[in-house]
Amino acid sequence: MNDTDGVTGARTPAGGLPRPLQIALGVVLVLAALMLLRSYSGIFGPVFLALNLMVTVYPFHTWLVRRGCPSALSAIIVALVVFVLLLLMLAGFIWAVNEIIGMIPQYTGQFVALYDRLISFASDLGLDHASLTGALGKIDPNSLLNAATSLLSASTGFLGGLSVLVCALVFMAMDTAGFAQRLAIAASTHSRIVAGFRSFSQGVRSYWIVTTVFGLIVAVLDVVLLQVMGVPGVIIWGLLSFLTNYIPNVGFIVGLVPPALVALVSLGWKQALVVVAAYCVVNFVLQTIIQPRFAGDAVGVTPTVSFVSLLVWGAVLGALGTLLALPMTLLVKALVVDADPSARWINALIASDPHDADGAARQRS
């Protein structure tokens, strides 16, 4: 017997709501969850980053324990390794920002001259000089330089959540010793949830390792390229290229613009075009064609889902969300989609390999 809504004719599952109401309720709950995460992004973001770091280095803990190291001591060593890596990343970021801020005043004259040449060129094309000057007056070079300096200075506000991150790392390190036993106990009653968390752990670990390795490769190639061309500040741009590699999809553009601008004002427009073209060849091929073959398998989602994830989690968690976009998506996929047999059909739409969904369907049939 089919239960239907007499008004809409929609099928109503036994003991449940009509399908349209279920969908509407699901959308409302998702939006409410995103708004809640946004309200507490200053807490959730650093805590989730700490979880990512601890999950990534957890195999090192198990390796030490197998070699006879006491579990508590191994947890301390792992935490120290995470702290060192984190401090190195933050120190590199702060150094790069300070170097860029110190470099900007050196090119003020070149930016002004470039601005004047653009105005003159536009006038030669027949554009009204007075109107053009008035329109561009709001974005004169000095204003742009001041805005860039303020933006780079404000970017260090990312360190505001450092205290939350450090505290989360400390407490997670304290829990590391007994984590395997807790997970085994939980698996006895909630095997699918635990299996989803293990899938998340393996995927996020592979993602961070692959992203780091490819980031180093891209950074080295960019440094060599810029050094050969004689672009100033090659180490800064190499470090920037490495750090922005952690931002999916748009990180390439963020890492390209500063060295291209410096090449433009210090070497000329031809050299700047060469920098852009060479960056596209090196960075685009590695990050867009080769890297997704490894990172995509780790995250298990299509490039479109990856891009949408960047937009969504960036809006919810801010700047930190751009770094955690794919791990967050992987967590949702592992715990909501993969752990629920009735929701695994979604894999056919979002999985990087649709054969995974076919295999799951055959197992259920």
What is the topological layout?
Blueprint: H1 19-39, H2 41-66, H3 71-103, H4 108-124, H5 129-136, H6 141-154, H7 162-176, H8 179-187, H9 191-229, H10 234-244, H11 251-266, H12 269-299, H13 303-317, H14 319-338, H15 347-350, H16 355-364
Helix pairs in contact: 2-3, 2-7, 2-9, 2-14, 3-6, 3-7, 3-10, 8-9, 9-10, 9-12, 9-14, 10-11, 11-12, 13-14
Walk me through the structure.
The protein has helices at about 20-40, 40-65, 70-105, 110-125, 130-135, 140-155, 160-175, 180-185, 190-230, 235-245, 250-265, 270-300, 305-315, 320-340, 345-350, 355-365. The chain is an all-alpha fold and about 375 residues long. Helix 2 (about 40-65) crosses helix 9, helix 2 packs across helix 14 (about 320-340) and helix 3 packs across helix 10.
